Amino acid sequence: MHDKPAVTQQPIHDIIARRWSPRAYDVNRPVSRGQLVSLLEAARWAPSCYGDEPWRFIVWDRNHDAAAFQRAFDCLGEFNQRWVKNAPVLMLVLASEHFRKGAPNRWGMFDAGAAAENVYLQAVALGLAAHPMGGFDAEEVKRAFNVPDGYTPMAMIAVGHQADAAVLDGDLHDSEIALRQRRPLGENFFEGEWGRPVVPSGL
Amino acid sequence: MHDKPAVTQQPIHDIIARRWSPRAYDVNRPVSRGQLVSLLEAARWAPSCYGDEPWRFIVWDRNHDAAAFQRAFDCLGEFNQRWVKNAPVLMLVLASEHFRKGAPNRWGMFDAGAAAENVYLQAVALGLAAHPMGGFDAEEVKRAFNVPDGYTPMAMIAVGHQADAAVLDGDLHDSEIALRQRRPLGENFFEGEWGRPVVPSGL
């Protein structure tokens, strides 16, 4: 198993620092029912605009319903299928386009992202790993699983017990052991006004 | 100080369970520079589609630049101003509408939501609290802080040390001590296909 803790200028909480998106999973270690419900409960308690809870999740567990899992797997892009074949659980997170009272909700995707982050972090807390993917056919997933109009599929999420990078081949293996990187703090984080980099020390 | 841990059917990690959005802050306790950088580092290490890091943050600390803080405060709705007047720090989180290479990024808001969730959770880990708000004038904030086209303001976030609910009056006080609630798990979380509620136990 490969660890890649975040390199930061001030400490951050352990489950945030240790969260990353591995592709090496152990196909022989299921996610337990209790773990699955913990992941969803973490999402459930995310904050949302007006408390509208605009996220929806659909989960598939290959050890529970192999046929349904396969139908979800078939919606993934070819690159993702190469490694998701070893993940025991898939999830789809969707964002509601409207508040429950009917008006357009411009925070649906933002709030769904907060709920999804809780899933990734709760996975770390449970000794699991989670990997969100944009590479799937959103129209096909809506058709295959009867998603009504008004909900936008945002990400498929693979979940499982991490395995050694050796289970992956070629470019997948190389990316699994590559360093994690982020742009310098001051490039995306400003102080006072747009474009003025926040600096880590001093005021 | 009022605690409202999440009520769940399986345990979730402490910082996820204890995160909520209080409105009672201690105006006399600043957020330290180190704490501020920790909050931003937590956001910086969130996952994003193609690693594009589409989030941007602008921060204002009333104990560093009172005039800039006031200009950010002036962009809030009246209801929020009633309690944010005691918060020492404000942040704005924005989502890029395009990937850095130019194509539209349909995950910008989703990824910004993940980064923001890390801020709220890191606040809990530091003994602080954070409260995201949709109630602000997005056009005014863009004008006031020179935000270029192509970035959507998603939420203003108040951050500080929590205070006793007694610092709040009337309806603000009542909501501060009210129970936190979420819809039942099976209402937003499905298994196998849309609309089939996930159930907490059994397979």
TrEMBL record, chains A, B:
Superkingdom classification of source: Bacteria
Keywords recorded for this protein, A-Z: Oxidoreductase
GO MF, one example: oxidoreductase activity
SUPFAM superfamilies (UniProt xref): FMN-dependent nitroreductase-like
InterPro entries for the chain: Nitroreductase (IPR029479), Nitroreductase-like (IPR000415)
Residues annotated as domain Nitroreductase: 16-161
Family (UniProt): Belongs to the nitroreductase family.
Name of the protein in question: Putative nitroreductase family protein
